[in-house]
Every structure is written in C-alpha cells, then in structure tokens.
Specification:
By secondary structure, the chain is mainly α. It is built from six helices and no strands. This is Protein LMBR1L.
C-alpha cells in the first residue's frame, strides 16, 4: 500500500515538475552527459516533492481513513485503513524527509553545478578523436575519472564537507547553549537528537516564511485579479453621463 501510494505521488509530481520546468540548453541531444545530469537531478527533485506532498496529505489521509472505518466498521475491504498503516506512513515520511533535506536536495544542487575535479573531462567530443590519457609518475598510463563519475566524486566531497560544517556548527551551538559536559560529548546520538532538532528548526523557519509571505501573496493575487477582471457598471448614473456628454459637446462646438 505504501509503495502504491508513493508511486502515485511520484508520477503526479513528475508531471507537475515537467509542466513547470523551464527548457534548458544542456538537455539537448548532442550533450549526453549534461542531459543525464539533468535527468538525475529531475528524479531527485521529483522524489523530494513526492515526499513533501505525502507529508502534507498525511493528516487528511488519516482523517478520511478514520471516518471510513467509523462509517463501515464491519466491512472487510476497508480494514487495511488502520492505525498501523498511518504509523508506518508517518515513519516513512519522517525518514525520507530527513533523507531529502540532508542529502538528496543538496546533492541535486551541487551535482548540477559540478564540473568534475581538475584533470577530468566530459565524455563525448568530436567523433574519431581519441581521448587523451595522462600518465602518472611511477605508474603506467591510467585514465582519469571522466564524465558523470567525476561530477559524482566532486559532489560527494562537497556534500561531505558541508555535512561536517553543519554538524560542527550544531555541536558548537549546543555546547555553548548547554554549557555542560553532557552537551560536549561526541555525536553518537546523531539520529536521536541532532537530525530531529535540525529538522524541527528548518520546519519552524518554513512556517515563519509562510506566515510572512502569505499576506503579500494574497495582496498581489487580488491586485492582479482586479486588473484582469472588468468592473461592473451597474451603479452608474446614466443622466450624469448624458449631462457630461452634452457639456463636452458644447465645449467642442465653442472651440470650433
């Protein structure tokens, strides 16, 4: 059931992203490497959007399933809508949310921006031209990492350094705030404390951003709607319009 639900959300999110995605030059046929990078990044973004949509729909799904069970308590075909399914979905959503937030989305961003380490080159090039192989001191001719693997290496290194930086900042902040020996211990409780704490902080930042941007979005939406719609003329005074028209006619006649 979880697999079917996630597959449906993934297909829906894939159509949504491909509908709003702008055309990119590196998705052309002649550049296979950049097109593959684009497809990988698109898959990661689609997975993350599916997880986010699942997190949003988790509460309505639980309410609807509870109402269905209360309406049909003796029906055998709806007994799978139980608390075990809701708890399992919540555990999967929490796991994949942390995975997407900490790993998948930064990896997709750094992967699209990477070019490979110095000395690597893109796969492809003119047909018939042999690829150069650089010798290394004290060994035979060894080809350097090329193509997508070079980008994967660079992205993994950058993501590892970013992870160490974020964990170090969280550990230092916890040590400063806690100011005791227990807060300065090693990061052995990473999964129980630091990841949920980071997830809660980012969720709080998202809620504050939503509360800040919603009034501006609503005002902009009503402004644009007011410009596009034609205002009704039901309360206009026709006699006043006729008098104004006569005055304008008399003014034009005097000028003539």
């Amino acid at each position: 059931i979880c697999t079917l639900l996630f597959a449906s959300l993934y297909i829906l999110c894939h159509f949504i992203i491909t509908h709003f995605k702008k055309h990119t030059d590196f998705a052309a046929v002649h550049d296979d490497e950049d097109a593959a990078v684009n497809r990988i990044a698109l898959g990661l973004c689609t997975f993350t959007l599916a997880v986010a949509l699942g997190a949003v729909l988790l509460l309505p799904f639980s309410i609807i399933s509870n109402e269905v069970l209360l309406s049909f308590p003796q029906n055998y075909y709806v007994q799978w809508l139980n608390g075990s399914l809701i708890h399992g979905l919540w555990n999967l959503v929490f796991l994949f949310s942390n995975l997407s937030l900490v790993f998948l989305m930064p990896f997709a961003y750094f992967f699209t921006e990477s070019e490979g380490f110095a000395g690597s080159r893109k796969v492809g090039g003119p047909v018939g031209v042999p690829r150069p192989v650089l010798p290394t001191p004290g060994s035979s001719l060894t080809p350097l990492p090329q193509g997508i693997m070079a980008r994967v290496y660079e992205t993994s290194v950058v993501l590892l350094l970013l992870t160490l930086l974020v964990l170090g900042m969280v550990w230092v902040a916890s040590a400063i705030v806690g100011n005791n020996a227990a807060s300065r211990q090693s990061l052995h409780d990473l999964w129980e404390y630091y990841l949920p704490y980071l997830y809660s902080c980012i969720s709080l930042f998202g809620v504050l951003l939503l509360l800040l941007c919603t009034p501006f979005g609503l005002s902009t939406m009503f402004t644009v709607t007011g410009k596009l719609l034609v205002k009704p003329r039901l309360l206009e005074d026709l006699d006043e319009q006729l008098s104004c028209t006569r005055l304008e006619e008399a003014s034009v006649s005097r000028r003539i």
